[in-house]
Design brief:
The protein is an alpha/beta fold and about 400 residues long. It has nine helices and 20 strands. Helix 5 crosses helix 6 and helix 8 packs across helix 9. It starts with 7 loop residues before the first strand and ends with a strand.
């Protein structure tokens, strides 16, 4: 089974955001260096049924092309649903894209399917086998058939984290599955859709010519971004209504963790306005008050030529979703300058932490910093844990790891 000690993964994202921002000089900066959390946490982890028939892959096909929605060379659509060997017992949801072409373009009015994975804290009595994937990852203690989840405490209601992966990924691509497992090992139910981004847009921004291409084909990328938060809300509806899960979720304790474009997704779910034109006008996509707080790791707030949240990030004005952003100072895909500008506009609890010299990636050196900051914030804001609240209020950095420090202090 892949462990956190072996994690090295890069998050790629269609880039598009600059600017600057800051905080009132009257806001005190914290000074306490805290010890890192033990990774993984105290619980074993189980996951929902995601069984697939890999014999359906044609010669030369990559399984990840189905997980991320990449069309075939002939243009034929591909998605994770094509591989499911037990779809009746796999979590899934269908999202109705609103009939608004300004936001959803050619997706407007369509029914869009999403495969969903959930992981949860389980006990030592769970002897279910791990499920191997062709990539070398395994789904821990996976349910099969109509198996019920085996919770560590069958009488408990657990807080839940809505997990949104980065662009062109999936919950079981790269090492996202290991990240989900860490949160579950700390007593959270963690649920994630396969966004299937490449079903809608496959643009990348690596140079100026790509930037021009994005501006010329902005509509599909806007639709992709707008559909993501709606799919997250639909997954939340699914879990809160599902007979296997609803009685084990505390509906008052819903948090989020997003990577790269997933960080933007959660901000949009919290009511932010999305850039909808080269002129940098913005439109609110949705707002889901059930999301109590969120963390964005290398969160995508846009590029200088195309901020994610409208001109000068003003789509964030008045947004009250408690949000922790963890950004790398050397990240050119999701520049910290854009994140700083946007975070300064939020009206609710917010904090920005920088990781010195870190690019748009996650490697083993970052493990302690990312999870200690994220779990402390989510425990404080979602669970309302008083110990976590106190620690967060004075926390300046995590011992060891990379050089981490606060840019915008907690408010």
């Amino acid at each position: 089974m892949t462990t956190l000690s072996g994690i090295v993964f890069a998050f790629t994202l269609t880039g598009c955001g600059g600017g600057s921002g800051g905080d009132s000089p009257a806001t005190p900066f914290p000074t306490t260096v805290v010890s890192p959390l033990t990774i993984p946490g105290p619980y074993a982890v189980g996951c929902s049924n995601i069984a697939q028939d890999f014999s359906r892959l044609a010669p030369g096909e990559d399984v990840t092309d189905y997980w991320d929605g990449s069309p075939s060379a002939s243009g034929a659509p591909r998605y994770a649903t094509d591989l499911l060997s037990d779809p009746a017992n796999t979590l899934s949801v269908t999202v109705s894209a609103p009939n608004d072409t300004s936001l959803y373009g050619s997706i407007a009015g369509r029914q869009v399917p999403y495969v969903v994975l959930a992981c949860y804290p389980t006990g030592t009595a769970n002897l279910r086998a791990d499920y191997p994937l062709p990539t070398g990852e395994v789904v821990p203690h996976m349910q099969t058939g109509a198996d019920q989840p085996l919770f560590a405490d069958t009488a408990a209601r657990y807080p839940m984290i809505m997990f949104s992966h980065g662009y062109q990924g999936s919950p079981i691509s790269s090492t996202y599955l290991s990240v989900m497992s860490v949160f579950a090992s700390y007593g959270y139910i963690v649920v994630a859709p396969f966004h299937g981004d490449l079903r809608f847009s496959d643009l990348t921004i690596d140079n100026i010519s790509d930037a021009v291409a994005l501006l010329a084909h902005l509509n599909p990328f806007t639709a992709l971004q707008a559909l993501r938060p709606r799919s997250m809300s639909a997954v939340l509806d699914l879990m809160l209504g599902h007979p296997q899960w609803r009685d084990h979720i505390d509906a008052t304790q819903i948090g989020g963790f997003g990577v790269s474009l997933g960080g933007e997704t959660l901000m949009l779910m919290g009511g932010a306005g999305l850039t909808t034109s080269p002129g940098l006008s913005w439109t609110q996509v949705t707002v889901d008050p059930r999301l109590k707080a969120a963390v964005g790791y290398v969160p995508y707030f846009g590029q200088p030529f195309l901020p994610a949240f409208g001109r000068d990030e003003h789509g964030l004005d008045g947004v009250t979703l408690p949000y922790l952003a963890i950004s790398g100072t050397a990240d050119t895909t999701a520049p910290i300058t854009m994140t700083t500008q946007g975070m300064a506009l939020l009206a609710g609890t917010r904090e920005l932490v920088k990781l010195a010299g870190v690019k748009h990636k996650f490697d083993v050196a970052l493990t302690n910093d990312i999870f200690t900051w994220s779990l402390t914030f989510l425990d404080a804001q979602v669970r309302g844990n008083p110990v976590a609240r106190q620690q967060l209020s004075t926390m300046a950095s995590v011992a060891g790891g990379v050089d981490d420090s606060v840019v915008i202090p907690l408010r």
